[in-house]
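lol ok so funny story. i was supposed to be doing the assay writeup but got distracted and ended up predicting the structure for this chain instead. priorities right. anyway since i did it might as well share w the group, maybe its usefull for someone
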Amino acid sequence: MSEKKALSSNVKSISRLELPGAGQVSVLGNYAFVGHVLNPSKLGTSILDVSDPRNPKIVSQIFLDDSESQSHKARAVGDLLFVNSERTPAGRRADELPAAQSKLRSSLGREPSHAELAEVLLMREVDIPALLKKQHQHPYRDGGFKIYDIADKTNPRLIVHHRTWAAGVHRFDVDENYAYISTEMEGYIGNILVIYDIKDPSDPKEVSRWSMQGQHIAAGEKPNWIGRKNRLHHALRFGDELWAGLWHAGIGIIDVKDITSPKLLGSYNYHPPFQQPSHTFMPLNKPINGKRIAVAIDEEDHAHDEHAMEQRRGRPHACLRVFDVTDSANIQPLSLFEVSELDSPWSRTTPGRFGAHQFAEQPQGTLIFCAWFSGGLRIVDVADPMSPKEVGFYIPQPGEGRAAPQSNDVFVDKRGLIYLADRYTGLDILEFQP
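and the output, tada:
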């Protein structure tokens, strides 16, 4: 099989821009908004003119004030840009360090070594000294979200930095009236849903909250899971419903007809035995054979170093899942779509992840456009919900200095163009040509 055939099928490359790694890419009109994973330059968000997709141009960039935050999610509505403010993974591990030290002291009867701490925290031993130093810094207080005025795309203007609590905001959805935020809040364990009225963007007002039973520890609830394993990853609004990925608690549908009182309509948890957490959940545009169909995608988790890679060997990879949601109170699984390790030349490259991560959150009929880490872009047709079929793929070459691509997010714009963002470096603009 030729290299060209192995790396692309039914997908044409339009252009590539060597941007720093991204957590999310979204497009509104002729502009793309890229939220960057923390990088040495503290670049938070890039705004690109993509009116000519063969020649995307950076029109402005927003930089962070500190190295403790990342702003890797970005979505625009009208003339407003919303970005998250979240503590970096390294900072979060500093928060987790005291509990890890205490647990190891108790079991070992002595102070744990750097190697032992690294094993518990899924880190490299060489990074532990910096983590110990970070542990003694000031508490993190910038978690939340920011809203910018982008009427002039060349000069984004900060309207508000709304602070939430602890590590802050991860993903979110937003429309003209409300922001649907996944964040940590005081008194809860793990991220919950907080809905804000944003009609006055300078003063977001909390409308309501939703959490799973067991998260509201300040109210006396007790989780039946360890740590933050069960939490809201994020929720997407479709009509009067929010469709939620709930990490190790599976998936859920939340009724928001009364925006002041969100209610769970139904949920489905496939953990255990599947160990990869539930990332994103959404319905298709139209029924298939009279049935309402939805898709969920897992995130290939904890593969940042060789140790974690070894832990994962022999386990199923994160995948795409298809459900019958005709009765939201009785969600039924229908099928899975997986990518074989034989389908990517970088499937066993370390460090790095191979399995699924995210799909385009804009339903495109029965086509699901998936970012599959080192599996690249996978386009899956679920017209037969019992038998998903791959109809195209595009695996980018690794960025400079990287062992493998890490396709992290994907967006499909109104022209049908596909934007594929890499976690480490590079943004590809592609076109599906079946």
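The chain has one domain: 3-432. Residues 1-6, 303-307 have pLDDT under 50 and may be disordered.
back to the writeup now i swear
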